[in-house]
Design brief:
Layout lengths: L5 E3 L14 E4 L4 H5 L5 H10 L2 E8 L14 E7 L2 E6 L8 H6 L8 E5 L4 E4 L5 E7 L6 E4 L11 H9 L8 E7 L16 H5 L17 H4 L10
Antiparallel strand pairs: 1-2, 2-7, 3-9, 3-10, 4-7, 4-10, 5-6, 5-8
Helix pairs in contact: 2-4
Amino acid sequence: MVVEVRTYTIKPTPLMPNSPHVLIHYPGLLRSKIENPSFNPADLYDLYASNGWESQWVARYGPTQPSHYHSAAHEAMTVISGEGATLRFGVADTSDDDEEHTHGKGYEDGGVEVQARKGDVFILPAGVAHKTYDPKPDAPSLAFHQCKDENGVVIRDPAKARKFFEGIELGEHFQMMGSYPFENDWDFAVGGQHRGRERQVWAVPKPKRDPVLGESTEGLCGLWKEKPTLSKL
């Protein structure tokens, strides 16, 4: 299988830690799998679990969302339905107004904007800022389905977790599935929360396997260093 790999170096900003590891994008890597008439999100749960990653949610995206990052976990996001959306990486919102921080000037300078399509996989190092907006087809609001029990605890029993993803309806709207290295819980950090403590975020351990490519050096196993060189930032 020929894998197209795109990488982006996302340097720290005044408000966002970002990462010494590159952001990885596999355009359309899983499109044929997802477009198979028999596809179910549980299939991706199985794929990621085989590589030591734990899927925890599926989101149908609304018009926009706050820019944020995860301080204690790397993240894989896979586009499982919809026509597309814009993902902005690397910068914090500087306005509370949705229109201003999405289409205006209410965010930090710099960053990278990528058009996401069905079958794309993004691997985000801990600390990398991101937001998703302008999904197609349009959806009125965010619908966030988390693989948690009635007490709000992540379901880690494989049979129960798989059943959760089997029950997800794909539909026509833009949806992504979020996965993390096993037993890594994510937080929702916004600009400035780790100012002066960026190295704490950068120290999150490198996963042993890429969520899709496993031990292949085409993926994070070859692209991320065990001890990233912080001086390059």
